[in-house]
């Protein structure tokens, strides 16, 4: 027999579960001076790349390395100040040792061991060809999928010094990206013309993003932070030709940029 119990609800507040999208910084070195230099190289000319995004500092890459012995020298207050210069708001830490976590807590961060950090997915094995007995699917109510933001489309050539950022979506460029110009997208980048400047896809860590161009001859290409500059020549079968750039996990655990020609 069910029993109904009287209860009182607060009139001024409610407590609900919430999900907060986070940016993750995978810290691979305790050398903050070098980190400052590389952040300046990567984001120094993009002051509006981040927009006060909450950030979790992932220390797991430091574990098992020589840098793990430098845990007492890792100044979390200085690290947080450095990140705030780029409009990032560090709020949590994960993956560190007990001493690192204690130092982070002392600096005002919280411990978030259960925070999930997106990483490149390993190639999946081919599905088995064993026969499968068909099943009659149960009827389900049709739910329309959420509408993704449309791609940003640029019709005019991009000159040296110009920069375009497609935040949260793909970028389509219908004209030439000249040397010194920069195209950035959180998703894919499509250039239906020569790509001779810089192209940065998956800017916020989307390892599935790709770069497509009808004439691939860039100064720099980058996907999810893995980059290649023009100092390393492209193979002749893709340089100046229609090609795509994608990211693939390597056997050593390090992600690698793969450039494939596009056949007509």
Automatic annotation (TrEMBL):
Q: Where is the Septum formation inhibitor MinC N-terminal domain?
A: 13-90
Q: Where is the composition biased (Pro residues)?
A: 124-139
Record region (Disordered): 118-139
Instruction: Specify whether Transmembrane helix is a keyword of the entry.
Output: no
> Where is the Septum formation inhibitor MinC C-terminal domain positioned along the sequence?
153-247
Q: In Gene Ontology terms, what is a biological process of this protein? A: regulation of cell septum assembly
Which Pfam family is one of those matched by this entry?
A: MinC_N
Q: Which UniProt keywords apply?
A: Cell cycle, Cell division, Septation
**Quick check: keyword Transit peptide in the entry?**
no
Ranges in coiled-coil conformation? none
Quaternary structure and partners: Interacts with MinD and FtsZ.
Q: Which family does it belong to?
A: Belongs to the MinC family.
> Which HAMAP family does this entry report, sorted A to Z?
MinC
Please give the function described in this protein's UniProt entry: Cell division inhibitor that blocks the formation of polar Z ring septums. Rapidly oscillates between the poles of the cell to destabilize FtsZ filaments that have formed before they mature into polar Z rings. Prevents FtsZ polymerization.
Q: Write down what this protein is called.
A: Probable septum site-determining protein MinC
Organism, scientific name: Hydrogenophaga aromaticivorans
* The gene coding this protein: minC
